[in-house]
Amino acid sequence: MATEQVQVIVFAETNLDTRIAFNTPLDITVSAFKRDFERVHFTCLPDIGEIQVNGLMVKRKSCFYYLSDSLPLKYAFPGTRRTWFLHVEVRHLNDPSPSPQVVEKRLGVPYVMFLMD
Hints:
The chain is mainly beta. Helix content is 13%, strand content 44%.
């Protein structure tokens, strides 16, 4: 009888204002999660193009904390084996110059373009 791998659901929001929910193995490292997230993001949102994940963060007591690549992601969520919430810092792979960066944010009904230096 094969052992079933335990999965958790991850809700991730990026600095591009994209949001994705998907399942991932409980024992995944931050480094492996970054690669998986890049693939899933492109599969779900191909119009945005390919991205590179620069960092994963968790929020604790109103502060965001970066997670190191070698960390098993489950250690950032002690006692929580059902749902994880992450902020993901990404950049477009096809963007030759990251600055100034145009970021599209949804504010209310219309889309507003912000030019960020």
